[in-house]
Each structure stands twice: as C-alpha cells, then as structure tokens.
Amino acid sequence: QIPSSGSGRTRSRLADAQQVRAGLPRAMAAAAPVAQCSESHDESGASCEQLYGPYPRAVPVPFINDRGETSPQPVLDAAKTFADISSVDHRDKGTPDEWVPRDGRLVRLTGRHPFNVEPPLSVLNQHRFITPSSLHYVRNHGACPKLTWEDHTVLVGGAPDLVPKPLEISMDELVAMEPRELPVTLVCAGNRRKEQNMVRQTIGFNWGPSGVSTNVWRGVLLRDLLLRAGVSQRNMGGKHVEFIGVEDLPNKVGPGPFKDEPWGKLVKYGTSVPLARAMNPAYDILIAYEANGE
Q: Which of 6, 63, 105, 243 qualifies as a cystine partner to 146, CB 3.0-4.6 A?
C-alpha cells in the first residue's frame, strides 16, 4: 500500500542469525528481472517506461455499495492518481483502512479486514506483463500504516561493532541517492492454496491462482544504505538484516524467544535476509519508493 498521511519510521537492524525474528515479508522485491534500468535507463539508453510502458492506469475504482456501483465515470476519468479518489470501497468503511481508496474488483480472501486480496485472473490475462499497481495482490497482517512522505524516515542501526554509523534518512534524502529501477514479479507463497485445501486442509486461507503481480519498482539498493551506515563486507557469515515495520500488531505468538526482551501485547512485523545476500549487488534488493512510475 502507498502511504498518504500520518507519520512513522521503518527500521532496518543488523542482527546475529541467532537473534533474527522469524516471519514472512509483507512485501519484498526479489526476483530475476527481465532487464534492468540503472538511473532509469538501460545500456541502450532507453528508460524503463520506454522498455515496459506505457504503464497501465493505476487509479483504483472502489465499489461504493454491495451492488458494485462506483463513483460517476467523469469523476473516475478525471482522477490522475489514487489520491484523487475520495470515495472508499464500502467494505472498508468502519475498518482502520477506511482512508485507503481500493479497487472493488480485487478478490478479498479474508473478509473485510485485514486486507488480503488478489486481482481477478482476467486482469492478469488482460495486462499480461505489468500489473496495474492498484490491482497488485496484497498480503497484510494488520492495518495499513498511515504515513506521509514528509515525515516518514528509514532507520538503519544495530550493535556498534556491526553498524558503526547508524543513520536515519528521510524520503527526500533516499530519493537523492543513486536509484535502481527494474521489473519485479512477486508471488505469494500461498498462491493456488485453495486447490491444496481441497485435497487436504492446510493452516492457510484460500488463495486462488492470482497471488502474483509484476510492477516496475524504483528505489535504492539496500546495499548502498548499509555501506553508508558503515556495515562491513567482511565476516558476514551468521549475520542477517532484520526489517521491522512501523505498525503495531496484536501479539498472537506469546512472549517470544528472547528472555531478556519478552514481547508485550503489541508486536512489530518483521522479516530478515542474510547479510551476505543484502550486500551482494547481483541480488538487487531494493528499498523501493515508486511503482510503475508513481
């Protein structure tokens, strides 16, 4: 989800492997690119938008009632981005995500909230390669954080011997760094789980065949942020980069594995990748701030 208002911070912490909190990423950009555009251009001089565009229209079309009705067509046609849509989907009313305009065509897999959706298969068939960002599949464990570009920051920290120069960087500072832009296909690990559940019930909910989407993502290499924070490329064995979200979620797993730091009633969502992978420029792990040119 693209944040629109509020404030918050995203943290990235370097940790020993024994201290990594387990979890699946809510959104991760890691896949083999078809082609890569550095500084928005590839070696031929073509920009990503020239290579893969024009990008499909990404303005969401919320259903304002259970009959599938939408805002008047002239209002939708005049909207340039999701921020121009004032209506919300009727299923989001009364939830923490009521402020987020969402496309009513998305197939909701876990009821009204939290928001876990996939696009109709017809949408993927229609657009083939690049998925409209407003119809990208979503896997959420809680509410969408309410953030603003002006106030949001990214924190990079950890033990002093691992991160000697911890930093806090604003979004404008992030954009000023050298960018990387490339198409990335994301797929949920539960894609087509509904068919598995028909054979034998699993603990996961019923994903259909559309838990997969492709956007052209633009951002900064995680490696560049870690180098700026003084992280060494030597002795990387047994170390991970831990990503910690802004949102507070109800604790459903207990006190956690750390006796000196027991988890409380609210916990952060997190995931991790090996430091060696994060520092390898061939992996193109991004801190992304733009999708399909927006």
A: 6
Q: Which letter does DSSP use for residue 132 in this model?
A: P
Residues constituting the chain = 294
Q: Counting beta carbons within 10 angstroms of the beta carbon of residue 58, is it exposed (0 to 12), middle (13 to 18) or buried (19 or more)?
A: buried
Q: Residue 277 and residue 282: Cα distance in Å, rounded? A: 9
Alpha helices in the chain (DSSP H): 48-52, 73-78, 121-127, 171-176, 193-199, 222-228, 275-278
In angstroms, the CA 209 to CA 199 distance is 16
| pLDDT of res. 22 | 31
What is the Cα–Cα distance from 206 to 161, expressed in whole angstroms? 45
User: First-to-last CA distance in the chain?
Assistant: 12
Provide the whole-model pTM.
Answer: 0.83
- Supply 153's token pair: 């920051």
79 and 60 in contact (C-beta within 8 Å)?
Answer: no
- What are the structure tokens assigned to 119, written together? 């696009």
Q: What confidence tens digit (pLDDT) does each residue in 214-231 have?
A: 999 999 999 999 999 999
260 Cβ contact partners less than 8 Å away, ≥ 6 residues apart: none
Q: CB atoms < 10 A from the CB of 195, how many?
A: 12
Q: What is the mean pLDDT of residues 35-40?
A: 57
| Sign of the CA dihedral running 165, 169, 173, 179 | positive
For residue 287, give the 3-state DSSP assignment.
Answer: strand
Question: Which pLDDT tens digit goes with each residue over 234-256?
Answer: 999 999 999 999 989 989 889 98
Quote the tokens at residue 56: 């499909």
